[in-house]
Write a structure and sequence with these properties.
Elements lengths: L1 E4 L5 H11 L7 H9 L3 E8 L2 E9 L6 E9 L8 H15 L4 E7 L3 H9 L3 E10 L4 E9 H18 L1
Parallel strand pairs: 4-5
Antiparallel strand pairs: 1-2, 2-3, 3-4, 5-7, 6-7
The structure holds coenzyme A.
Coenzyme A binds next to strand 4, helix 3 and helix 4.
């Protein structure tokens, strides 16, 4: 698994994955292009044998105390092997480097897989936006992570790993 920064040349492959993963509410090419180019964004891709199998993006305005996980996607054939968690952790580590305190995200209420990933990293549900996803008429679950708590937990588990090896 190779992670690297996303660039304009990745938009076509990212959009193919975006449309396959979000058939009813995919972003537009223009929106994705803008997000990747934004100085407030931080987008990464995951490659396997030269093929793009995942991408994720963070929005963290320089100097702000909060940030948002904008998107995270793994190709269907590559799911369930830890790649999604690795992408999420890379976003959270970048947010920590930017001195962010809280990370927010929205996830579809009918997406238990993504919710389980977020909860397992320490995100808590803080509210719902009724019927936020259209045309599917699905609620958004709004979640928040205390990033300093996450970073402390991450450091503690790294220490534990050190003791065991
Ligand atoms: C959500 C997504 C990014 C997770 O990526 P992934 O590589 O499959 O996930 P991982 O293998 O890293 O697993 C991370 C956690 O997700 C949850 N998870 C993964 N697959 C699951 C499944 N089939 N059923 C239930 N939970 C699952 C588990 O909590 C898992 O942790 P565990 O392995 O310790 O049990 C991926 O499923 C995806 O791209 N889905 C479509 C796009 C999407 O919904 N994106 C999120 C939008 S908010």
């Amino acid at each position: 698994m190779t992670l690297r920064a996303a660039g304009p040349a990745d938009v076509e492959a990212i959009m193919a994955l975006e449309r396959a993963s979000f058939p009813t509410d995919a972003w537009s090419d223009a929106m994705m292009r803008e997000e990747i180019a934004s100085p407030h964004g931080w987008y990464i891709v995951d490659e396997e044998a030269g093929r793009l199998v995942g991408y994720a993006g963070l929005r963290a305005v320089r100097g702000a105390q909060d940030a948002d996980v904008q998107t995270i996607t793994i190709a269907e054939s590559a799911r369930g092997r830890g790649r999604g968690r690795t992408l999420l952790r890379a976003l959270l580590a970048e947010a920590a480097d930017r001195r962010v305190h809280d990370v927010f995200l929205e996830v579809r209420a009918d997406n238990p897989v993504a919710q389980a990933l977020y909860v397992s990293e320490g995100f808590l549900e803080i509210g719902r936006r009724p019927r936020y996803y259209q045309p599917d008429d699905v609620d958004a679950v709004v979640m928040k992570l205390d990033l300093r708590g996450w970073a402390a937990r991450d450091a503690a588990s790294a220490d534990d790993a050190g003791v065991c090896t």
